[in-house]
Automatic annotation (TrEMBL):
Segments for region (Disordered): 1-64, 407-437
Record's bilayer topology term: Multi-pass membrane protein
Compartments where found: Endoplasmic reticulum membrane
GO CC annotations on file: membrane
Transmembrane segments: 87-105, 117-137, 149-168, 174-197, 209-225, 251-272, 284-307, 319-343, 379-402
Residue intervals of the EamA domain: 86-222
InterPro entries: EamA_dom, EmrE-like
Species in which this protein is naturally found: Penicillium angulare
Name assigned to this protein: EamA domain-containing protein
PANTHER family per the UniProt record, alphabetical: ACYL-MALONYL CONDENSING ENZYME-RELATED, SOLUTE CARRIER FAMILY 35 MEMBER G1
Compositionally biased residues, Acidic residues: 55-64
Superkingdom of the organism of origin: Eukaryota
Amino acid sequence: MAPPRPRSPSNNADRNPYPSDSEHPDAPLPNEPYRDDESSHISSLVEYEPRPIDESDETEEDIIAESSRPRHAWQAKLRVFWLKNKGVFLVLLAQAFGASMNVMTKVLEINSSLHPFQILFARMSITALASYFYMWYARVPHPLGTKPIIHLLITRAVFGFMGVYGLYYSVQYLPLAEATVITFLAPIMTCYACSLLIPGETFNKRQQAAALVSLGGVMLIARPFRTRDSHASNLDQGLEQGDSSSSTDSYHHVMATIVAFIGVIGAAGAYTSIRVIGKRAHPLVSVTYFSSVTTIISLVAMAVFPWVQFRLPSTPLEWTLMAGLGVCGFLLQFLLTAGLSYVPPREVANSKASQGSRATSMVYTQVVFALFYDKVVWGTTLSLMSAAGSVLILACAIYVAVMQDERSDPGPVTQPDNRPQFKDVGDEEALISPAQG
């Protein structure tokens, strides 16, 4: 009789080929207590646990990358949205600082009876010093601008002074609501001017309609032509402009209106000049020219006109407000210039460049920030009409910001790389050529 074959000679070569007593089928059960073999138990679970078919072909890095892919896609969409609308959000942030600056200006005019030239000198001198210091710290190339665009920088500064002085002068003799409504004519003029003077700039009918509707929202908030009795008129004027405005005659009212419209032309000219300058100058260079020219003009006016005396802040509160005024003015001008001159990179700009028009329309949102400060600082209750106007302004501003131009780009824009670029057009081309893609 042949001996039985070993059970698994490959697994245990030294094992006795004949079964022992404990391995015999009729052998009694072992007396040792049962011990779970943890290694064999885990191996059996791993061996028989259902797994995806292609799991063996993926490494740990592949699994991690696959699990994080939706988050990366969301971040990519957010980055594209930011690159498309970066200029819009910069202008929006600039309006927040602009509203803060107007609050400080109003407090100084009411409590300290400061003249616009005195406020402009204090504000712009601080802004100029901060601009020069930052350009030195950041080593901005060509801090005085290059020779071909120096005249454009000076033009931007002169127009900017006209705009800011028109606002500061008009609020002395006009209700603050009327002066605010007049200043909001500047963005519409800028949009039309850019679409006519700068190649590639568009301002389609939908954007025009949204801008006009937002202007209607400003009218709902301001209500400059509403009928008021003499007591309410004097009370409002006394709260907004101080004691001098309650005795305003028709001559000063007409003059203030004319100066306010001159300020609108100045603001529109400054915005358009920023678009023409584009990336040929660092945004801070434009801010430095504007603040320096305004400081010089204000200083000369205080030295020439006898009714405007040179005055420095006399109390800690005035010094604090003046310093805050200068800082907010610096941030306002820097963010506004950067936002208006920003152009999305080529890979995300899939339509005609309407960035300037959309970004300029965000200037309307300053009214919303002003309403917020009125409620927080002065406790002004928001009326139903003001709330409706605020909703209109926000809705139209957001619509203009996120709306893509339906007109396709006729040709690719040639750029050496894909980095974010600022507008770069020649002087003669920007002023003569018709708007085209």
